[in-house]
Amino acid sequence: MSTTTSPTHVARPGSWLARVLIVLGLLAVLAVLGLVTLLLAAHQTAWAAGVLAALCVAVLIHLSPRLYAWRYVLPGLLAVAVFIVLPLAYTLAISFTNYSSTHLLAFERATQVLLARYDSEGLGMAFELRREGDQRRLVLQDDQGQHFVSPPFKAPVLGTAAPTEPLTLLRQTAEEARATPGQVAGPRELVAERDLLAGIALIGADGRTYRQASLHRFIDQKRLYVQEPDGRLRDMRDNSLLSADMDAGFWRRADGSALEPGFRSSVGWDNYRRIFGDEKFLQPFLRVFAWTVSFAGLNTLLTFALGLVLAVAMNWDALKGRSAYRLGLFLPYAVPAFISIPVFRGLFNENLGEINLVLDMLFGVRPGWFSDATLARSMVLVVNTWLGYPYMMILAMGLIKAIPEELYEASALAGAGPLTNFFRITLPLIARPIAPLLVASFAANFNNLTLIALLTEGAPDFLDTDVPAGATDLLASYTYRIAFQDGGQNYALACAISSLVFLIVAGLAIVNLRLFKQKDAAR
């Protein structure tokens, strides 16, 4: 007797699993449409179009039987696009601009900021807000005791804008002002109506324009700049014209002085020319690059060597308590780096660190770990080797287990010793499978920002460079300092360096992988 069973993991039409998947799909579509709406509200039309196009492609793939196989590829492609391609493209795009702490805004936004500036002559009036249904009135009193009342205006509904036309004030006596209909708004009501009051302009009998300056006061304000039909700005104080310098990213007066805020603009290859053409940038860049390559190479070599030696020792059959040793040697990898690195920073402290206390007691010396370039680099290598060797040890232990025991038995019959076994059997058989992982380790060490940021912060700094850079700075930390520290905040230049770092790491990885591939083919 035979029975047939159908696979239970396939969602049939009408089953509860199919209904759940349909609901989840609809929720995902609604979420993406909501994201598109938010992007459009933020005036990010290009991003909204891209997200909408990706949604259309995803829906087409899931509805078309011909594109069924692409359903399994789509999540990976989206992950690559979102987490790799888009960040790289955005970084590369910024590197061709002047984006920095003084050029944060787009041209249109920077222009709006200037047009929104007002000049005050210090003339002000206290005010009350009278509320009667949806009608509002303002009752004002100047410093000379004169009273003024605004015409009635309606409160905006559902977040609509305040009255756009200026309101002309009517002069009244104190008794007439107090008799103005409506209930006086308290502080809470004034706070609730702050958007309405901020958008109101009042025209006094003297022709001055008054705008809200505080919760209880309107002051005389007039625009500093107005935009001319040809796009230039006119300074209302001296009637001079301002022009936009698109190359430098500033609005400039006739005398050439710049106004802040600056705006983002395209500068072409200027950031890359600055790196390689400006001596004050080229010199520290080359020094940091040389140390970065040395650090990545030496650390990969040291962690691999130490991890392999310990892995061989852990596979020694005569060793008692191997499980306890393995656990102890694995602990540096189990503790998060942001905990271990500050501990090492305290241990290497030049005045109170335990390492210098022991060296002082034994040899009478207190090395300057953070002030001497050679010692600082040695300390960085030691700490990162300690943090990285468990990973190599685990990999090597797994690969050693895959080596046939017959090879070691034949080697023992031939009279070979442990060193011969290591260099003739273990190392050659491990080198090929672990080579791609060594390349990945090199790339990871090339961009090891966490270690430098938590241990030395790049110290000791170079004293002969204008650009902030230190003896232990890697390209990643050097870029970080230019972008966010030491008064730099030059994001575009940092993005240019990041793009170069990516090209260098990608090029080194490709070269190494091809070399290993050629070696494998030759064998």
Automatic annotation (TrEMBL):
Keywords annotated in UniProt: Cell inner membrane, Cell membrane, Membrane, Sugar transport, Transmembrane, Transmembrane helix, Transport
Domain ABC transmembrane type-1: 289-512
Keyword Cell division: no
Keyword Coiled coil part of the UniProt annotation: no
Subcellular compartments: Cell inner membrane; Cell membrane
Domain of life according to the entry: Bacteria
Database matches in SUPFAM superfamilies: MalF N-terminal region-like, MetI-like
Transmembrane stretches, start-end: 20-40, 46-65, 72-93, 288-313, 325-348, 368-389, 434-455, 491-513
Pfam families tied to this protein: BPD_transp_1, MalF_P2
Family: Belongs to the binding-protein-dependent transport system permease family. MalFG subfamily.
Purpose of the protein: Part of the ABC transporter complex MalEFGK involved in maltose/maltodextrin import. Probably responsible for the translocation of the substrate across the membrane.
Subunit field text: The complex is composed of two ATP-binding proteins (MalK), two transmembrane proteins (MalG and MalF) and a solute-binding protein (MalE).
Name of the molecule in the record: Maltose/maltodextrin transport system permease protein
Organism: Ideonella margarita
